[in-house]
User: Fold these one by one.
Assistant:
Number 1:
Amino acid sequence: TKKKEVSYSNRGKSLEDDLNETNVFYLQQKLAIIHKKPVPIQIVKVDYPARSAAVIREAYFRTPSTTDYNGVYNGYYIDFEAKETDSKTSFPLKNIHPHQMEHMKSVLHQRGISFFIVRFSTLQRNFVVLYEIVERFYENMKNGGRKSIPFTFFETEAIEIHEGYLPRLDYLKAVDVLIADKAVCESEEK
Amino acid sequence: TKKKEVSYSNRGKSLEDDLNETNVFYLQQKLAIIHKKPVPIQIVKVDYPARSAAVIREAYFRTPSTTDYNGVYNGYYIDFEAKETDSKTSFPLKNIHPHQMEHMKSVLHQRGISFFIVRFSTLQRNFVVLYEIVERFYENMKNGGRKSIPFTFFETEAIEIHEGYLPRLDYLKAVDVLIADKAVCESEEK
Ligand SMILES: [Mg+2]
Ligand SMILES: [Mg+2]
């Protein structure tokens, strides 16, 4: 009966760990190819010891100019940013860098699928939300509006993803919904 | 009359430099969003000096598990590997890592556009060649066949890209041809 006690509770694991595990699963199952981009590093000094690997001795972290993850899923270019917040009531927009918003806008212009995965860590709830929706809040903030997106907005307007065993965080289900919605929008525009 | 002497000759510049410049141009002109992936680094030791930026004091280069470049172009997922050779007669397949081939095969399976940009440095000639074509040579090599792709094959079967001023290496023109060819193939398959 020990099996019944297995819990998929996720306390302590970071959103990034969960997404990386999920992406490995997607890759192995041939469902999608999505990778975390390495953090860009400015390398200043490298030693080349005889008979062993080069050692970086001085380097600095650079600010990423794009998003955390990108790749391809069934012909679609996928590009997203993962964000965690401890807040129980809202997602603070200051977590998003202006250059990330710019990058995501360009992705949209190239007809990629651009979204955020937002984890409310304390509440253990995860949501997928389209870039376009976050952009509305972001522009509104720049015009003096509120500096965060209410949790209640996520509950009613975003797509919730539930934690599981394999994959840990099956966000492609949400991406399917985004793609289906987009197809509807595009055909309505005609 | 000095202007007439301006040459777009590319001696000395690396293929990577040319592609990075080209990608900046594409980004600024809103033609495509394609980035070089940072080389993955294994960080072992970081110092956090008071009042200044974190300094990486020990780190190692890791072997990239994918390709050099990826991004999105007009709804298409683009994924490619850039390779240079000094040879005047053929492109040696040992330049390609098995994990790169695996990655590109997966990209194809997800309906992305996967290709190589090959520069014959000594000849100052550049070619775009679909992953699928390289795969034929690669598989043939694994079965005991020749270990390189003849330059004459590139001349007749690949798409040549010529160096220019802005952009340096307009490979999207070649990608347009690849996409058009694929569309023809797919409709013939039906
Ligand atoms: Mg993030
Ligand atoms: Mg390369």
Number 2:
Amino acid sequence: MSIKMHGSEKALLLKEKFMAEIARHPAFKLSDIHDLSKDELRERTMEKFASMVYFVTNESLETFQLRMQLIGIADPSFWTRFGVAYGLFLGALRSGATPNQLSYWIDRGVLGLNGVIGCFAMTELAHGSNVAGLETTATFDRGSDEFIIHTPHLGATKWWIGGAASTATHAAVFAQMIVDGKKYGVKTFVTQLRDTKTFTLMPGVTIGDIGKKMGRDGIEDNGYIQFTYVRVPRAHMLMKHTQVSRDGVVSEPPLAQLTYGALLGGRTSMVTDSSNSAKKALTVAVRYAAVRRQFSSGKNELETQLLDYPIHQRRLMPLVAQAIAIGFTGLRLQTMYEDMTQALDTMEPSDPNLHDILDKLKETHATSAGLKAFCTWACLDTIDKCRQSCGGHGYSAYSNFPLMYADFAVQCTWEGDNTILSLQAGRSLVGAWGAAIKGKKLAPGVAYLNDSSIRTAKSNSSLDLSDIQRAWNCVAFNVIKKAAEEYVALLKSGKTKDEAMERCSQSRFIAAKLHTIGYIFRLFKEAVEEMEVNEESKMLRTVARLYGLWQIEEQQGYFLKYGYFDATQIDKVQENVDALCAEVRSVAIPLIDSFALSDHIINSPLGKWDGSVYESYFAQVQAANPLPKEHPYFNRLIKPLLERQNEDMEDPESAMGLDDELKEMEDDRKGE
Amino acid sequence: MSIKMHGSEKALLLKEKFMAEIARHPAFKLSDIHDLSKDELRERTMEKFASMVYFVTNESLETFQLRMQLIGIADPSFWTRFGVAYGLFLGALRSGATPNQLSYWIDRGVLGLNGVIGCFAMTELAHGSNVAGLETTATFDRGSDEFIIHTPHLGATKWWIGGAASTATHAAVFAQMIVDGKKYGVKTFVTQLRDTKTFTLMPGVTIGDIGKKMGRDGIEDNGYIQFTYVRVPRAHMLMKHTQVSRDGVVSEPPLAQLTYGALLGGRTSMVTDSSNSAKKALTVAVRYAAVRRQFSSGKNELETQLLDYPIHQRRLMPLVAQAIAIGFTGLRLQTMYEDMTQALDTMEPSDPNLHDILDKLKETHATSAGLKAFCTWACLDTIDKCRQSCGGHGYSAYSNFPLMYADFAVQCTWEGDNTILSLQAGRSLVGAWGAAIKGKKLAPGVAYLNDSSIRTAKSNSSLDLSDIQRAWNCVAFNVIKKAAEEYVALLKSGKTKDEAMERCSQSRFIAAKLHTIGYIFRLFKEAVEEMEVNEESKMLRTVARLYGLWQIEEQQGYFLKYGYFDATQIDKVQENVDALCAEVRSVAIPLIDSFALSDHIINSPLGKWDGSVYESYFAQVQAANPLPKEHPYFNRLIKPLLERQNEDMEDPESAMGLDDELKEMEDDRKGE
């Protein structure tokens, strides 16, 4: 089971190896993390950073990616901090630099951080999602063969720049390129921030600390940067796509580059991370529910395990099913993506299949926008529901839920705000719909749009995996149709394309949501159907049914509206979900164990593998809160309060004079 | 408008007065709160505490309650800290002490904290919701006329006790009373924890700090307490209900006391607090959306205000409507509750109306359980949606959303876990249903269950307030019927009452949810319909329609299932919600202003009243994060990294030897 969930035995073994390694590494101590100060957290992050450099330069990419995936679960803060230097800065070089530029920066030490520590300076105070609207300028100075990087006003201050506050020596700065007074749009300029020997700021560079955030305080290192006429050599502009010659001649690429790949990789990893983080929270909540007892049932002395209450099963089992479904989706997405990239790489431009593969890539790219949104939302929701399911103890920092929530919350915002990404997915579905009615054969992810008979399909009442799949295809078809027809009607009424898209945004959003849930279900179903039939795959089929039917229950309005199920069948769905929750509960503990997360990684006494919840919790609380030798403010604050005499006070009536005050305020107001 | 929202002009004026007072009080400084350490937060909390003692002893209860309501919005941490001493400890004395006992404790200084600072020691490590299952014991020792308070094992440790860690001198300890070997259930014993002169712990009392929590760190003062055979005089047992004589004769009350009142008061204040906290978050999000611009629409140079995007209106306007709806619900609940208590107080036991009033009180009590649950959930959800609607800046601590979320989250758990409370409400609805079919006339809150024609009602397509009200009555009727019928069927199949209730818990939950939303809508509708017709009340009618229709959209499955609306009408509902969002957006800024929350209270630069978002945000970030004089870890960590030579490393292949390791792990595993 565990091997299936991890994709391969090798992946599982590697995970166990990495878990054992970090459990023993002092920099990766987790149990004291809740009580560290901002400065202590930062310093420890930097220690981890240094400890990872060895692996990044020596391990295969595949192995290192698995390592980072694990780090992402154990320590999201650090994962981000590392991702900034490698994913973003190095990614910017890889996608934007010419081969010569790339080898220049690698020679200067970008890979091993020996010479250059990079950061990624895109976002500005007043501009996030709209990259084309960034306001930092890069003006070409022909005389010196340099660009002049400048922050024209406060709103153009680079903001949130991870690693800038106290670590980075260089930044990939995104700025509006201006040559001879003409604007050419946003390009990237590698700009030195600090002297690598003394670490003093370069002339014209102002850097400050962004300060406290909701979570991921290990990257407190987020900074802001203002440039005041900072000069960089022309050669430090990344010129793979747009080139500027010594004479200031600008050559722009004939076509916008194919950037699907880069975004798709990030989104796939966020889908996987959503599953992993949800599994971490669920490991704690399910184990706790197996230990915690509450209210005795009649004569039996022992109180009932929380997990045996139907409502508690309802709270957790669908979330377990969802986390597993998203996990398999992530695995398949990864494989699909690798297959497509490989096919593209080895294919000749004349290959007749090229177009199909590109279509598939484009479709997966659009779907991945929706997946990123709905999977991160689902995970955030799961973490908070797990916290609530542990009652008061879930509110203790040592349960680790507060940190999990705070760390994860940003996933709904960065790399594209979830709502905006959902609308992008919806826009693409509207487009796919248009292509389908023109008779075009669509890519697999949206192929159900080619089959218009699905629109009026009815359930055969079996509620089996095929029935559920047809149900999702039916409602997704209908809600996409609704959004597309609204869009067309708006166009006909004279709106521009952009206006029409804005006006139908609620319907686009719903289309993206139902398509995405159906897509997750389909990938999960395919994964379990490919397995050989045995106890494990039977259990996963049960889990898949629970996921599909629970989501139908959640979105029941659409199934009734489009007539796939009638009211009686919807009641049957609820009964089935009740029964499936009980069935999954009976294997909940082995299922949770197959997530293979060590006590060190989950870092919560409530989820201790051996069930020693209260003992571990008490020990951790004691260790984290040693008694002070002396009361910090008894003499200054408490003693005077306790020993105070009431007679010290003035007569309350005259002292308060409340009604006079209110009268005066009212008069003031009337006089205004 | 603002007066209407605050219930009276006096309430609004008082709020403005209190806001002005705390804005100038150094202990209530809020802007630096995100960067204070645990110890600093605690000390400041104690300063606030001392500053409030004057008001509690001198202000009228009504005025002081309004003062605390405001404090609850500005500083939830402190509000809790204060509530522990006054609401809980004093509340325990009021409800449990005889008149003589009460005056004894008041003479010892309970009110002014001059002599006694109390805390409320109910919850134990292993017991929260199930108070009857508490395991601390209080054994009567006839010889010395004392009770011996004892913690028998770790799970019985008093846990989460607010104020215990470093402030309280006494505790109201809930313990199983044992007299002559017989257990009499949980009673309350006022137990001294610390010497009031020296503050040293009393013999046998062990106290520790519970440490870091998700939020409300100003009450870090949560402690745990273990008692090792601690003796308290018999007279310190609260004896209003159960008495123990000098000879150990126990007299128990003939009937369980009527405790509706106490719980109802707390729940009403949590409904009001849900509205206020949601309004605080919405003030920030809506003002920010009016300032933030993103993407330009075509040729127009200026980018579009976020608030003008239909999807952004969809994100925020229904939440504005909901916060207002809950606010009016809170006001009416308060009035209803006061009227009922007054009626009960002045009524003779023989009064023929007594029974009606008691029924009404009972119904309101049950409904208030559902209201507490769904209003606190709605508010928590609102805070996070507001955060997300502000993009990346919502993740900054200085936006204040992270603290608002963390502080509010506990409201879903304490005073009854929301899921459990919902089920209690559902249980009472099942009971009401049973009474209705026996022909009993029900209290107003559930009177629609007396009208069985509502079950098959259909919409007249007007979608006006009456149509919406009938819609809610129709679906609530049907889902309560479903839960009740499931329950009856389970009883018939031979289940015990308790088992049957557990088995139908999902249906009970749904019944409580739909009843509660319909109830909120009804109270809001009644409030606006009582207002004289003018521009303001028209606007509030629009808000009420938005609330009712948006919630129908959210729960559309039930309206389709029970046939109140058909698919075409449901599409109309969506169109109406779109249009109403745009309409409310047009008055969004004045609506938000009428919430009357000062810049000091909202404590977020993103929501500055004058729109100076970026300037204020930048200034706050700078003030909170002064540049360090020296880099904290450049020499220790960064310099060695930057100046490292790659040649220092061993040959990567042999160093890694990864495949050998994995082989070994696999062999180990197979050998198991």
Number 3:
Amino acid sequence: MSIDVTVQVLKDNVGKNIMIKLKGDKVIRGILTKFDQHMNLVLSDAAEYKAGDQTKLGNILLKGDNIIIISPQE
Amino acid sequence: MSIDVTVQVLKDNVGKNIMIKLKGDKVIRGILTKFDQHMNLVLSDAAEYKAGDQTKLGNILLKGDNIIIISPQE
Amino acid sequence: MSIDVTVQVLKDNVGKNIMIKLKGDKVIRGILTKFDQHMNLVLSDAAEYKAGDQTKLGNILLKGDNIIIISPQE
Amino acid sequence: MSIDVTVQVLKDNVGKNIMIKLKGDKVIRGILTKFDQHMNLVLSDAAEYKAGDQTKLGNILLKGDNIIIISPQE
Amino acid sequence: MSIDVTVQVLKDNVGKNIMIKLKGDKVIRGILTKFDQHMNLVLSDAAEYKAGDQTKLGNILLKGDNIIIISPQE
Amino acid sequence: MSIDVTVQVLKDNVGKNIMIKLKGDKVIRGILTKFDQHMNLVLSDAAEYKAGDQTKLGNILLKGDNIIIISPQE
Amino acid sequence: MSIDVTVQVLKDNVGKNIMIKLKGDKVIRGILTKFDQHMNLVLSDAAEYKAGDQTKLGNILLKGDNIIIISPQE
């Protein structure tokens, strides 16, 4: 069994572009700058995508408890 | 791994204008005056935005457990 | 970081008129008479507002876990 | 700050008629006979009210975690 | 204040017919055979009632966290 | 009061056919092969039933926190 | 009673193709590469299936608390 799977993955992606799927079919993209063990994320250059529309958000703090999927974007 | 990501971000924004996205597609804007480690926020000059309408709320206490995203507003 | 933001705000408003937004778009107004650290509130002269209608409730005990926003009413 | 606000209010209402608003727009009325610190209530002569209809329930045990508001009925 | 209100009520109803209201407007009736302190119930001769239809379920284990109301059926 | 009601019932049904009702009106049937104290279940020969349709799932791990009712199938 | 049923099943499926059903009728398929005791999963070659459509996701971190069912895919 691997411990702290979420921390490992997030550590590897600091400074990189990630996509986050939230409850309620929201999708956020941005550059991961900080995170903690509750999957709270700080993103820069973030934008929200919903039903084809993009809304620029800039720097955001995203609460971990609404996250369903995190995916690194090559 | 960074500890207390939410506290760091909130500390940097006391006295500044922030935008908060809540569950149920509510958006609140206001000046952050106080906060605690549960992301409970005290805002002054707050207003709620929903489907294009703005409702002035004045001073409010906002419970942290409904927050999805916090974004500083330059 | 400020500790016990909710207690501070509630303490300052005992005996005063407050507005509470609950999950499910309910709004309650009343005079705050008592509270505890879970944001459970006792209100007198309370009324519920929904879609323009007002329902008088008198004295109520309001459970803290349904609260989204508390706002003092000048 | 007052401790145990819910216990105080419930203690004062044993043997009396109370109205309870539950999540999902259910309203229950009945005579409070027992309670515990989780707001679990035992009611006698209870009835449920929904959209103008009344359903007699008799003696019931009502779980505290669905309660939004409790109001004594003079 | 009474402690363990739910245990008292359930103890008094072992071997008796009870009605349970669950979240999502489901109603279950059956004979209570066992229970624990989480309100997990074992029922025999159980049936589900929804919108006028009855579905026989026989022996069931019912998880306590979906229960809203328990009512003894004379 | 009986302790560990869920463990008792699950233990009696290892190797037997059970029906599980999940939140969201999903019904799963299968042979119980393993379980733990959180009601996490391992089923073989499982299938999902929804609105009259059956989908074969084979071996599955079913998380306990979505379960409403477990019923042994004679 | 078996302890750690979820860990056993996940351990047996590292490097293999699994199907995950999430709340909100989402289905994810991918190769399990890592996991932890909260059922947080790391998948490679993942894709999302919804109402007949497939969306490629590549490498993803999937939070355990949205999972309903995990099924190994032979």
Number 4:
Amino acid sequence: MNYISVTLLACILPLAYAGKVLVFPVDGSHWVNMKILIEELHTRGHNVTVLRASNSWHIKETSPFYISITVYDDGGIEALVDTFTRQILVNRREKLSFWAHLMLISKSGKAIEEMHQNQLAMMGEIFENKTLMDLILDAKYDLVLTDPAFGSGVFLAHRLGLPLVLNARWTMHGEAHFEIAPSPLSYVPIPGMELTDKMTFGQRVLNVMGYIFQHIHKARFVYPHYHSFCTKYFGDEIQYVSLLQNADIWLMRNDFIFEFPRPTMPNIVYMGAFQCKPAKPLPGDLQEFVQNSQEHGLIVMSLGTLFRYLPQDITEEIAAAFAKLPQKVIWRHTGPRPANIGNNTLLVDWLPQNDLLGHPHTKVFITHGGTNGIQEAIYHGVPILGLPLVFDQPDNLSRMKVKGTAKIVDVAELDRTSFSQALEEVLYNTSYRQNMGRLSRLHHDQPMKPLDRAVFWIEFVMRNGGAPHLRTQSFRMSWIAYHSLDVIFTLLIISAMFCFLIYLLIRYLCLKIVFKKKIKSD
Amino acid sequence: MNYISVTLLACILPLAYAGKVLVFPVDGSHWVNMKILIEELHTRGHNVTVLRASNSWHIKETSPFYISITVYDDGGIEALVDTFTRQILVNRREKLSFWAHLMLISKSGKAIEEMHQNQLAMMGEIFENKTLMDLILDAKYDLVLTDPAFGSGVFLAHRLGLPLVLNARWTMHGEAHFEIAPSPLSYVPIPGMELTDKMTFGQRVLNVMGYIFQHIHKARFVYPHYHSFCTKYFGDEIQYVSLLQNADIWLMRNDFIFEFPRPTMPNIVYMGAFQCKPAKPLPGDLQEFVQNSQEHGLIVMSLGTLFRYLPQDITEEIAAAFAKLPQKVIWRHTGPRPANIGNNTLLVDWLPQNDLLGHPHTKVFITHGGTNGIQEAIYHGVPILGLPLVFDQPDNLSRMKVKGTAKIVDVAELDRTSFSQALEEVLYNTSYRQNMGRLSRLHHDQPMKPLDRAVFWIEFVMRNGGAPHLRTQSFRMSWIAYHSLDVIFTLLIISAMFCFLIYLLIRYLCLKIVFKKKIKSD
């Protein structure tokens, strides 16, 4: 590894307690969230250092909010994600055979494996760069803040002997709760199956089978790499899972307005929609366009960070559907300009999503169903038309559908008629807006803002050198001991022996009586 | 039942949103906590009505903070508790035989059964008093607030169709968490066994066996009464446990500074030490006495609401031990004045416990180990000498002992030497004070005061008509479905059938090959 540069642009506010936070982020849409935490920490006077890859996708080398340490990396997850997600859409659109789909799933497993390997390799290079490690150790950080979607930041915290705070929604095992909180599969749906917390018997069977399948899948593609890394640097005694479960605080990018209620843990802090803010005024050109939507309202469409544009045929269908509407449409679209585009539709490279969703004219948000977008829609009470594509998007949108706040359109089946129908339902059936309004009110009815809560607990860990009083003993236990299987087995054996002794005693007594009688009768 | 009176003394503050809260409290030390919630609700402009028994022990008929509805009741738990607790102490002190102890435990089971019956009878009388029920219905309360140690308040909420908030530490099943949160017996100790969250194999066996035993005990003495009540008033379809688990918010008089960390639920709100406040100046006579303790410090002794005084012989030993100390002692003691009392010891009928514990001269708190007292000691960082007697007291103190903040003396073995030794250890071994200081700092390092948090969630339930988005689906499920036993059984059967089919197929093929070979060789 070439240790490239350390930028020193962060301006340090002179506050009473300035902590030092070392951040090992995950690139892509995950960085959007991490950046908000970093900015807030910086604003409160803490010093943040970000470990970034030289070929980083979204993580800039220079920022007014953090110092960066750039590590040479030739892997990069951008190309992988881009190819993979685009291919999935093509497959679904072209209704390729089951076989083609299976091949893609297997390929996706490979792609995910490659990403984990890449992240571990990067961490290995950091560990073996003595100059860099000394620099990090000398800086005397107060904690490591990482996103456990890729788990190598967990190793970094352990190597440095620092408290660990996770900015989490996913771990390498799947949804982060499954890692530390009891998750009864009878009412906690596993990710990726679009199930709810009210399952039929058949759905419960699917949920359990899916859980087993996902576990096997991860055991094939992911665990072995973490296991080897752990053995190489920390010996056989230490398990990756224990290091992860040993985290002081889990800041969950989630809450029970969005997610189904489920068991939780003392060291889980919910910060769903922490990135949302009241809408700011729009920039001049947008403001004028939006102002003209007063009569019929505004539709906002954006497919997030991953999808820059949809295939041309889908785009044309959507454009044609939009053209027929009386509403104004702002569409974040960076591909070729659709021929069917109407006068009411404004194509933009980028849009101030939060400010647009918070505009009183906005009637519907058309989204791929990323967590950030959905939480912004909840925050501002805007109903959703969902075009789910990959990852957690179908699940996220199905949660919104169950709560009566979203309509979902299958991209593979999308044409101008079906798209129009769905859009008009969300526009004109008031229940969607009412239900989203209810969720929005629940979100705003909290004792503390989610971002403040998150930063409080990061600062808590810095002030107190961790939060061990909130971490259960479960992470020290084997699977057998945790589930008391050894105890149950022992008690069963003892009961069986007891019953057997009773049986022997009764048998002995009966025989004796029979024998006596026999003697008498003889 | 005679419906006696409705006091109308509560002054109603003119606030924007004045909610109406119906409180069904539990008498005795539980009332101490409930009263604090009521006072705070009143201060914030809500109207509180308390349903109280005519022979109430601590719940006054008139108060500036609530309207009371008095219901005739001839049961009363005061005498029962008093006789029972006193007898336990005598038994332990006199080292009565195992048989005598067993008889007492059986008697205590009977006493507890009687208390539950009494509370249910009172609720039955309320239900059957049409005038009173109409009055309550007409008042249009926003919610029912009750302590589920006796469960009949839960029936009241169901009968009135109102949201339910619990001020809980115990339910009729035991510790309240066991009712709604997953409680792995491998690291969650059951109450009454003085176990911790780090258990040996033997302790885990004890924990599981204790859990089974307690369940059987309750099934014998408690459940049947609730079951009959439920059937009588709501029919066979409804289970008491479902009504309880259906509660909107569980305000737990606990936290993870006091309790071992364990799984929790979205609708559990921790309000441990919510009753504590910064110390106020002491009244004149006490102030003078305390001021004179500057050189060596002050010892505060109180055995709470239940125990007015200890047997005379114990009292004399304690008085003699105190007399030898250079410290000043304030002792809440209402029995006969001990002959051994020293000049340094002040006997009082009542003491401002919170203010005394918050006084900088206070070095040690001698307590029976009630939750309130321990939480006040944590709040003010005062180490503890514990004299546990009954109920949760041994458990509470064992938690403090494990955290290095308390020394425990067995009352049955207490004499002036052992008492002095223990007291001097807590006085002069600085680790007790340091550890309690750490707990105190953790308590004060919260994003929100526990009382504010509790009242926020009571008001949340009033504003939103409940909090169903925080309640998991578990309460609707049978035990078998909840643990996925039906699913596991089904999957095992399918797997077995599949294996059997494979076996049949292989057998068939083998036979065919052998058969062919035979024909050939023939």
